[in-house]
Design a protein that fits this description.
Layout lengths: L1 E6 L6 H10 L3 E4 H7 L6 H9 L12 H10 L1 H28 L4 E5 L14 E6 L2 H12 L3 H9 L4 H4 L5 E4 L4 H17 L2
Parallel strand pairs: 1-3, 1-4, 2-3, 4-5
Helix pairs in contact: 3-5, 4-5
């Protein structure tokens, strides 16, 4: 099975591009969905996070993502501690899901992961799709989307490798600056290239 990485930056439009690939018939494994699954109530992952980060559980016993986010985005040490707890669990779940797709005879799949390049996962992929926008637009979209002040938006952008750096590792770049129709046309072109690879 060919496995392709799909990445971008926060507020670059990666989720939109991921949905477009799904609409074309692609199998997409979403790292964010897997990350949520490994901290569902009753999981060892949630117990570990609650122990290391007291006060991040809501009254319903679920992870309060906003509370946890405020802590880890403000402090690189805390972010590293969270990643050390969750990344091995996410990696294991990803392997299980990939194996299941292979057993179903799926010929190609995309792994939608915001930190694909930061975590070195791109090295094992058959190609990488980068969703790109200029940094100023990325910051503007993030502030609007999440209701953040400029400083908070900067902190979140600083937690990821800049899109310009990620470009160096991309096989294909989807420029998401313009209209959705333009983005969709680029996604269709990339999908055709993937299909042509067999």
């Amino acid at each position: 099975m060919r496995l392709y990485g799909l990445t971008g930056g926060i507020a670059s439009g990666k989720s939109t591009v991921s949905r477009m690939f799904r609409e074309l018939g692609a199998h997409v494994l979403d790292a964010d969905v897997i990350a949520r699954e490994v901290v569902e109530p009753g999981t060892p992952g949630l117990a570990e996070v609650a122990s290391r980060f007291p006060g991040v559980l809501g009254p319903d016993g679920r992870l309060d993502r906003a509370k946890l986010g405020a802590r880890v985005f403000a402090d690189p040490t805390e972010r590293a501690a969270l990643n050390a707890l969750l990344h091995p669990r996410i990696g294991q779940a990803f392997l299980q899901k990939t194996q299941a797709l292979m057993e179903q005879g799926v010929e190609r799949a995309l792994y939608d992961a915001p930190l694909l390049i930061e975590n070195g996962l791109h090295a094992g992929m058959d190609g990488v799709v980068l969703v790109w926008v200029p940094r100023a637009l990325q910051k503007e979209r993030l502030m609007v989307r999440d209701g953040l002040e400029a400083q908070a938006a900067e902190a979140r952008l600083a937690a990821q490798l800049p899109l310009e750096e990620k470009r160096k590792h991309a096989t294909w770049i989807v420029d998401n600056t313009g209209e959705l129709a333009s983005t969709r046309a680029q996604v269709e072109e990339v999908w055709r290239a993937m299909l042509a690879r067999g």
